[in-house]
Amino acid sequence: MTDVQFWIEHALLPQGWARNVRLQVCAGRIAAITADAARSEGDVHLKIGVPGLGNLHSHAFQRGMAGLAEIGGASGDSFWSWRELMYTFLHRLDPDSFQAIAEQAYMEMLEAGFTRVGEFHYLHHQPNGVAYDQPAEMSARVAAAAQATGLGLTLLPVFYAHADFGGAPPNPAQRRLIHDVDGFARLLDDAGRALAPLGDAVLGIAPHSLRAVTPDELTALVPLTRGPIHIHIAEQTREVDACLAWSGQRPVQWLYAHAEVDARWCLVHATHVDAGEVAAMVASQAVVGLCPITEANLGDGLFPMQAFAQAGGRFGVGSDSNVLIDAAEELRLLEYGQRLVARGRNVLARGEGVSSGRWLFDGALHGAAQALRVQAGLAVGASADVVELDHAHEAMAARGDDAWLDSWLFAARRGAVKAVWRAGRQVVSEGRHHQRDAIAARYAATLAKVLGA
Ligand code: NGQ
Ligand code: ZN
User: DSSP letters along 84-127, please?
Assistant: First the structure.
């Protein structure tokens, strides 16, 4: 882990923008912060430095099918038919191809300004459904991809056991995903060991959804971790209807009635929620994990973000299906979805003079850090995850402070992220990951094999 000193002309600190900031980094973590400091010899000099953003929800392997599910069908294309294609793709992957795709996805995340990912990882077994000789083989491949690219990792091994509400048996396309609770507990132990070499990885759990987990299983899973707990919930109206038919309750309503949901939880999507569910989520201090690009791509619907934000709800963003990996675009689309519905502008940032870019960035920074169980921002004790915005990018011309964030999120094409340091180590320069050529070549060769087969 790296020791380094940064001198940042304009740094976004927890209390706001500061000038001429020296960040001292010890073993990858921020050891001291001094504003209005003089520059010294050997300092790494940045013009605009902001904290790296957490990406709280990813299925890395799905990057490999990005753009291949955009063809209409006679029966009407839906989330559920996309899922069939996704399962078909998943069945072609072996540990090497899985890792090569994950490395490509993680490299792109770093280039976009994400410095840690919450990997919601469920591809556990061989294509015939039998565990690998090392049951945590695929978890170890996620860890290897994080290590190869330098991305911070919060691994969320997924428990999956059923095809639908009421404990329906899994269908054959889901056989690579399946565990019983005891087998999952063993996987979790092994996965924890696989994370050790990363130094600052975090381990949590992810009951996949209320479709995939019975009430008894959910009750048995929660005590298996003291880390974060992530779950997909209420993403599609069909899922809400099926939950109502099964239990008489809506998914989020059911969850709050049957589990102690607190600040360790991340509710991914939570798209279809009523006012009572919004109030329960806010009161619990759980993070809602919004994935605006994927939710648009899959036709999920729009989360009632305005009501949730006004009540002080906590949120972060995730790249989920990785159909497009772009931190700025996730936040832009989150805001734009709400503007289109509200027929207004700057609908989330509250208060006279509050910048939308700053509001979105700060909110997503803190929510993702909470959901990924790390300290947020450029603060003493936090990982030295620093993103340099390109002062010379046209979109940044004649601007400063929050207007840089607004211009990055709303007005810049590619190239606004100039450089990225993760745990004090530089991994992106001039917008390119240091291993870009090798990783991209391996990715292309891998896909040619996987899709050509
Ligand atoms: C997933 N993805 O696990 O990859 C899911 C689809 C499901 C999203 N929900 C599968 N975006 O929910 O059953
Ligand atoms: Zn997901």
Answer: HHHHHHHTT--HHHHHHHHHHHHHHHHHHTEEEEEEEE---S-T
Domain assignments of the chain as residue spans, ordered by start: 4-50+380-439, 53-372
CATH class of the 53-372 domain in this structure: alpha beta
Q: Quickly count: other Cβ atoms within 10 Å of residue 4's Cβ.
A: 18
Residue 114, C-beta contacts closer than 8 angstroms, at least 6 positions apart? 52, 53, 54, 55, 151, 319, 325, 327
- CA of 320, nearest ligand number: 2
Distance CA 158, CA 209 (A): 9
Give catalytic status of residue 320 as yes or no.
yes
pTM confidence score: 0.98
CATH fold for the domain made of 4-50+380-439: Urease, subunit C; domain 1 (2.30.40)
Relative to the CA of 158, which ligand 1 atom is closest? 3
For a pLDDT cut of 90, what percent of the chain falls above it?
97
Q: Is residue 226 exposed (0-12), middle (13-18) or buried (19+ Cβ within 10 Å)?
A: exposed
AA identity, residue 179: H
pLDDT at 453: 66
- CB-proximal residues (5 Å) to ion ligand 2: 320
Using the mean position of ligand 1's atoms as its centre, give its distance from the Cα of residue 243 in Å: 16
pLDDT of residue 2: 77
Could you tell me the distance, in angstroms and rounded to a whole number, from the CA of residue 5 to the centre of ligand 1? 42
